[in-house]
Amino acid sequence: MRRFIALFFLALALAVIVWEALGYFEYGDWSLIVFGEIAFRLFPEWLNTAQAVIQRYVSAWLWDPAIQTFLLWPAWPILSGLGLLLMLPGRRRR
């Protein structure tokens, strides 16, 4: 199961890179897709709720510089990093 999820994240990262490249070829401008944009499009209520809960009950500094910075990073390195992290423990030994 872990290997399937890892491959899913790697496929998403590849899809994001292809989407960015298609935008470059169509418009002549390479614009990065940030991770927060994907998260907001997939789970808009969850992202707003997570922000409110973290700022109110955990700590405001955790959301504003830490998580917000993470959400502004390009999506493909985050997705591929998650995929690789999940792939490593699931490696088969010979």
For this entry, give a set of tags.
94 residues; mainly alpha; 2 domains; 5 helices; 79% helix; 0% strand; flat
Would you spell out the secondary-structure blueprint of this structure?
Blueprint: H1 2-27, H2 35-42, H3 44-58, H4 60-71, H5 75-87
Helix pairs in contact: 1-5, 2-3, 3-4
Radius of gyration: 16 Å
Give the topology string: H per helix, E per strand: HHHHH
Question: Residue share in helices?
Answer: over 70%
Q: What count of domains describes the coordinates? A: 2
Q: Give average pLDDT, whole number.
A: 90
| Topology, number of strands | 0
Q: How many strands, which pairing sense, and closed or not: the largest β-sheet?
A: none
Helix run count:
5
What overall form do the CA principal axes indicate? flat
Poorly predicted regions are none
Describe this protein's structure.
The protein is mainly α and 94 residues long. The chain has two domains: 1-30 and 75-94, no CATH class; 34-73, no CATH class. It contains five helices and no strands. Helix 1 (2-27) packs antiparallel against helix 5 (75-87) and helix 2 packs across helix 3 (44-58). It is flat. The protein starts with a helix and ends in a 7-residue tail after the last helix.
Q: What's the gist of this structure?
A:
The chain has 94 residues and is mainly alpha-helical. Helices cover 79% and strands 0% of the residues.
